[in-house]
Amino acid sequence: MAKADGEPGRLVTDSAAPLESTASFLDSIVENLPHMVFVKDAAELRFVLFNKAGEDLLGLHRDAILGKNDDDLFPREQAMFFVAKDREVLSGKRLVDITEEPIQTRHGLRVLHTKKIPIVDHAGQPRFLLGISEDITERKLLEERIRRADERQRVLAQTTAPLAPAGEDPLPAAARLALPVGGDGCMFLVELASGAPRAVVAHVDAAREERWRRLVETSNLVERFSGSSRAVLEAGQPLVLNEIDPATLASFSTDAKAAEELAALGPHALLLVSLRGRAQQLGTLVFLRDVTARAFDEDDRAFAERFAQRLAGDLDNTRLYRELERAEAAQRFLGEAAERLAGSLDFDELVGLVPRLALPFLADWCVMFLLEDDGQMRRFAVAHVDPSRAPMLVESVGRYSPGSKQPGLEPARTQEPILNSVVDDALLDRVCVDADHKDLVRRIGTATAMAVPVRARGRVLGSISLGRGSGGPLYQSHDLTLAVALADRVGISLDNARLYQEAQAALRARDEFLSIASHELRTPLTTACLSVDLLARGLQSGWTHSACTARAEGTQKQLARLKRLVDGLLDVSRIAAGKLVLELGEIDLCALCTELVDRFAEEARRVGSEVHLRVSCARRIRADAMRIEQVLTNLLANALRYAAPAPIHVQVEVTEGGARLSVRDEGKGIAPKDLARLFDRFERGATSSAHGGLGLGLYIARQICEAHGGTIRALSEPGRGAEFVVELPLSPPQP
């Protein structure tokens, strides 16, 4: 049996075996131990013994180890740690247990559990240091993996529950939750419906978080990936970059300053996962490591995928909730707008109301453009949430709208809505007239804008322009849809107001016509009755033949006038019923006009006027002679009625291209406001009350011309007379 001889660290034997055999036996034990065993001398801490397990662990042959110290074999910081522990053992003359001791080997960094023991002589002084090290690297990795798995399960369990109240953004809370399990930093880059990316950034280091946030907001960090990398993400596959070389890092940004900042932050590993919702790609989840030296492994990738999957469901729910809220708010807005629009049938009042309806729910400012009958935008109404800026809107529209390029007018011309989600300098350069106009738009406050047409029953009434300043959200497609719905309701209300006003005007015209008609019909009828009564008395009292004849002729004139009035009313009823029938035949237009001018010569002389005729007919035309005579009769009668004693000029020309007939006078002319409605039914000029008439002659003339496939128009300026031009084809079109 072996026994101690009183000297620490030394064994003796009482057997007869030689000492060499005992040393060989001990060497065999040390050599075959599964743990690294080494001995250092106490003076210089040089290795004097090293077993095979130590050789395998360090990846070095003992010949390269024996006689050397830690400074010769390991990095300086590591060697200093080993020496400090050795000195602690030797000075304290006691065992030191180092539970975790990192050591750099040829196989990489390993973690050891080391016990160091002093070997002392008979005097109790340390002579050697014995070390026994167990490699616990795999055990530590397993423990770390289990710890990380437990932490990730906790994170995933929290991700399953809503991270934010209903309708609120869950991304900031999710980014915080993922740290540091997923990485040193977490980013969400989400593509909104407008196409503009939105970034959410979190980091374990607050200072680095702010730097990363600025970098992501000012550069296209993720969008700059190569096409193949983007394709991987779009296909739903994670993308792992564990060794990011300078070239790859530089490709993330085209901006030199952003590239420098990215290089300074020095990410050495990136893990990207697609955020895929139920029906669309929502964005990208990015984990990065720029502090921890560990690369991303399969466990990291699996966690990132599960985290992204659960978060995408929450994002989808948030999106659907917001869409539901937005739809409900839009319906309330449209309902309230329709109720306010229905409260008035005054056209001008409605035009002024429209811009106020859109504020502040749909816009910060609004302009309602109204299309006039001639196709020009002359009327408008404005509103701004800041009343002090409303005059700027008025100035902008008043100075720059007519004939300008600004988008607010385009929908009325094209009948297509316009959406400018971002109003930048490039857009302003394109639509503004000059630098002053551009500055005015900026001062009004326009970061996003849209414009929609206002229509009713296929007719464009105008357009509505809306805009928001930089403080509000950018317009998206759903905002444009809401604006179109509002414009449709505005169009219906304006059309109803217009129809109401037209109905009121028609009622007034009817009442006026009945009053005029009763007067106009009563006058010749009363005169005819008086003439017949006088004639009867004259016959009884013995009037001469010539006196009776004169009275009879006067009665005939009044009856003829009465017949013309009744015929006019009958023509109107036929036209309204679509029963105006043409009796076509070959006519000589020049001969017909010559005969009519001769017939009006006496009446012209009576009112002090004169009719001049110029004719040039190369051929006949096919027309209804009685109806063409009716047109020319109305034109000559009007000219003599309103222009006398100024001269009248009649010109007739028939060529292979068609017939042209004009009646021009040198009278006072026609006011523009009367010219626009001259050919309407029951319309009479400003001086018609002094001249009589039902206001049907020109209306009937237009209907006759159009029935022949021709046109009639009036040309006039106040003080320069008037000209009526009739143009007819050689033959009416087939019905």
UniProtKB/TrEMBL annotation:
<dbReference type="InterPro" id="IPR005467">
    <property type="entry name" value="His_kinase_dom"/>
</dbReference>
<keyword id="KW-0902">Two-component regulatory system</keyword>
<dbReference type="InterPro" id="IPR000700">
    <property type="entry name" value="PAS-assoc_C"/>
</dbReference>
<dbReference type="InterPro" id="IPR003661">
    <property type="entry name" value="HisK_dim/P_dom"/>
</dbReference>
<dbReference type="InterPro" id="IPR036097">
    <property type="entry name" value="HisK_dim/P_sf"/>
</dbReference>
<dbReference type="InterPro" id="IPR013656">
    <property type="entry name" value="PAS_4"/>
</dbReference>
<protein>
    <recommendedName>
        <fullName>histidine kinase</fullName>
        <ecNumber>2.7.13.3</ecNumber>
    </recommendedName>
</protein>
<dbReference type="InterPro" id="IPR000014">
    <property type="entry name" value="PAS"/>
</dbReference>
<keyword id="KW-0067">ATP-binding</keyword>
<dbReference type="GO" id="GO:0005524">
    <property type="term" value="F:ATP binding"/>
</dbReference>
<dbReference type="InterPro" id="IPR003018">
    <property type="entry name" value="GAF"/>
</dbReference>
<dbReference type="InterPro" id="IPR003594">
    <property type="entry name" value="HATPase_dom"/>
</dbReference>
<dbReference type="Pfam" id="PF02518">
    <property type="entry name" value="HATPase_c"/>
</dbReference>
<keyword id="KW-0547">Nucleotide-binding</keyword>
<dbReference type="Pfam" id="PF08448">
    <property type="entry name" value="PAS_4"/>
</dbReference>
<dbReference type="InterPro" id="IPR004358">
    <property type="entry name" value="Sig_transdc_His_kin-like_C"/>
</dbReference>
<keyword id="KW-0808">Transferase</keyword>
<dbReference type="Pfam" id="PF01590">
    <property type="entry name" value="GAF"/>
</dbReference>
<feature type="domain" description="PAC">
    <location>
        <begin position="96"/>
        <end position="148"/>
    </location>
</feature>
<dbReference type="InterPro" id="IPR029016">
    <property type="entry name" value="GAF-like_dom_sf"/>
</dbReference>
<keyword id="KW-0597">Phosphoprotein</keyword>
<dbReference type="InterPro" id="IPR036890">
    <property type="entry name" value="HATPase_C_sf"/>
</dbReference>
<feature type="domain" description="Histidine kinase">
    <location>
        <begin position="516"/>
        <end position="732"/>
    </location>
</feature>
<dbReference type="InterPro" id="IPR035965">
    <property type="entry name" value="PAS-like_dom_sf"/>
</dbReference>
<dbReference type="InterPro" id="IPR050736">
    <property type="entry name" value="Sensor_HK_Regulatory"/>
</dbReference>
<keyword id="KW-0418">Kinase</keyword>
<dbReference type="Pfam" id="PF00512">
    <property type="entry name" value="HisKA"/>
</dbReference>
<feature type="domain" description="PAS">
    <location>
        <begin position="22"/>
        <end position="93"/>
    </location>
</feature>
